[in-house]
């Protein structure tokens, strides 16, 4: 498993070292190590990870690779937490290898990569370390970027249901400046995904246009998905329109989305959600399955240092059995070195087919200011959650319940030392304040060496729902200690 990457590295160094007297290669990289201890009974408590990656650049050539060690790595997804150590969770491997060459407007790339066609509706491979999501592909890419932009790729990626099996993704993207103010583009993506004992073929065609004038920016993107297993049928479609205008101190804009059976099994896409909080129509399904909606927003500079932002969006499915509305109002005031933001947030979701209703509303604030010895940021929110659930007393009967989720946080910067103190709670009602659950946490960051940061977290985190790229995940609650070391060179 390790021989091939190591041999490749030795050969690469053997080629570069004789040339070092004439030109100096550029080397950069990072090393991250972390230890996690969970204070939970009857469960796996200790986790450790280490990643070391480097990149080497020389005369248009680039090469890099990464070593991953998870012994095991701590998962963010609540469903992936382990009660006992599992052999499949232990990882030691050199991976994420890439090599590329650039000469003027031309470039080639082999290995692991992130890539996007247009806005990402048709195709996007990406990594989100914050949520432990990795949808990067591994393969070959050729690109040209001068009079027009063109790129083509052929790649593989792990099957969602069998990670030891590779699926295929290939395609091309073209973007042409028709005029100084108008850009046109088109994309094709083919995907072969293993389902059962055979591969499913999907072909996706996309087109887009963008009009940019001094006071206006309009864009449109559409795509169709053709399932080759169903001859002559269009299996899905997508449409996204957006625009913004500026009139003196006022900016305003809007967006419209339509996604019908346009959800990829492999997540190699990035669907714009057209709402302030990036919420899906329903927590139980991805946005690409069946979702329509609009968004309208405005940003007004009221006076010197004062700014008002308003945003409202609605979404629904084809049958209008699922509906969602999202609203935001924020006021920002910059007075000298003090910055204050006060906001109101509203998210409501309704599912008639499952008799589900949930509404979250919360005022929030952020105040940042310097003191004589420290920089200070204070923030907080008071969330009210209302929802319909099955009654515990009467079968097949539903009742409305509510609770509160207050949160306060203080961030301090004292020379090189950064401190963050947070406190979150869950109140069934105001009479239960003293008997409720509380999640206190302290995070400390300090650069122990030049380019090396030590991070320590001790306390509890509530976890909960986080939505990204049209999909919602539930991050596990945490109680314990995390120690991390980040080095850059």
Range of helix content: under 10%
Instruction: Find the count of extended strands (DSSP E, 2+ residues).
Output: 30
Shape: globular
Catalogue the unreliable spans: 13-22
Taken as a percent bin, the fraction of beta residues is over 45%
Structural class: mainly beta
| Average residue pLDDT | 89
Radius of gyration: 25 Å
Query: How many DSSP H or I helices?
Result: 1
CA-to-CA gap between the ends? 27 Å
Question: What profile does the largest beta sheet have?
Answer: 24 strands, antiparallel, barrel
Description:
With 489 residues, the chain is mainly β. It has 1 helix and 30 strands. The protein has a 24-stranded antiparallel barrel. A two-stranded antiparallel ribbon has the order 6-7. Strands 8-9 form a two-stranded antiparallel ribbon. The radius of gyration is 25 Å and the shape is globular.
Give the helices and strands, then pairings.
Blueprint: H1 3-16, E1 26-38, E2 46-58, E3 61-70, E4 91-103, E5 106-113, E6 115-117, E7 123-125, E8 127-128, E9 133-134, E10 137-145, E11 149-158, E12 166-179, E13 182-195, E14 198-212, E15 216-227, E16 236-247, E17 250-260, E18 290-301, E19 306-316, E20 322-335, E21 338-351, E22 356-370, E23 375-390, E24 398-414, E25 417-426, E26 437-449, E27 452-461, E28 464-468, E29 471-475, E30 478-488
Antiparallel strand pairs: 1-2, 1-30, 2-3, 3-4, 4-5, 5-10, 6-7, 8-9, 10-11, 11-12, 12-13, 13-14, 14-15, 15-16, 16-17, 17-18, 18-19, 19-20, 20-21, 21-22, 22-23, 23-24, 24-25, 25-26, 26-27, 27-30, 28-29
